[in-house]
Design goal:
5-stranded mixed barrel; Rossmann fold; globular; binds hypoxanthine; 8 helices; alpha/beta; 31% helix; single chain
């Protein structure tokens, strides 16, 4: 039996956050594997470890600190998730979306969601950033959409449009900031798989054939919930490894975390630039 969210459950978390911070964030951020250090540049932050939040899906993966960092960055009040939870950790999809619901109830209007991803597009290299122009909701298509269950009318409609999940104005803003800062920015379609096993070469050839540029195990549930609730979304993948379409290279979580060190400075400049311009 799946666990569905209720407004009361969401608001219990909102209450717990509000008891620990006076900030009123308008921007939310989710930092993926190895990308947590971006939160270190936030001034005068209030930090709330996930276990202090009732019913919060605690991240169990190495490379995910597991706390909210709330403070100011480039003059904007931000609520940052330093680490996230994933479907493969055993959480039901609606629960993976809980943090975004909490952000929405707190007044967050823009969500910047990041992840570490494997390059399916052969033109991408480890260390590249990829702006998400769209996603393939493969797990959702197969029955695990985070919006499954009773619709929460307070947030959005039963059958939400998904023709433009990634906000066009934010995409343009990110492109401008990248040019100004000399950051090479790839663009493409991200797919979220259930994981936790990495893909077989046949999986990857299938994904390439259906138009995927980067593959990971996150982001799509959060972006779907964000868009359902009217939050403007920008998504960025840090390309950590080349996907193994020919079966002659090995993918490890260590290389994903290592690539984060190259990606974080670029991602930090991009995010700061976008925040400044918002
Ligand atoms: N596959 C799936 N998820 C990932 C990968 C990958 O190659 N790299 C980082 N996250």
């Amino acid at each position: 039996m799946s666990e569905f969210l209720t407004l009361a459950r969401i608001d219990a978390v909102v209450q717990a956050v509000k008891e620990r911070t006076d900030y009123q964030p308008s921007v939310g951020m989710i930092l993926g594997s190895g990308l947590g250090p971006l939160a270190e540049s936030i001034a005068n932050a209030d930090k709330i470890p996930y276990p202090n939040l009732p019913g919060w899906p605690v991240s169990t993966v190495q490379g995910h600190t597991g706390q909210l960092v709330i403070g100011e960055l480039e003059g904007k009040q931000v609520l940052v998730m330093q680490g996230r939870s994933h479907f493969y950790e055993g959480y039901d999809m609606p629960l993976v979306g809980l943090p975004v619901r909490v952000m929405q109830r707190m007044g967050v209007e823009v969500l910047i969601v990041t992840n570490a991803a494997g390059a399916v597009n052969p033109d991408f290299e480890p260390g590249d950033l990829m702006l998400l122009t769209d996603h393939l909701n493969l797990i959702g298509m197969a029955g695990n959409n985070p919006l499954r269950g009773p619709n929460l009318e307070e947030f959005g409609p039963r059958f939400p449009d998904m023709s433009q999940v990634y906000d066009h104005e934010l995409l343009d803003l990110a492109r401008d900031v990248a040019v100004e800062n000399g950051i090479t920015l790839q663009e493409g379609v991200y797919v979220c798989l259930a994981g936790p096993s990495f893909e077989t070469p046949a999986d990857l050839r299938f994904l390439r054939a259906v138009g995927v540029d980067a593959v990971g195990m996150s982001t799509v549930p959060e972006a779907t919930v964000a868009h359902h609730g009217g939050t403007r979304v920008m998504g960025v993948s840090g390309i950590s490894n080349k996907a193994n379409l020919d079966g002659n290279t090995v993918t490890t979580h260590e290389e994903v975390l290592e690539a984060g060190q190259v990606i974080v400075p670029k991602l930090t400049s991009l995010v700061r630039g976008v925040l400044k311009a918002l």
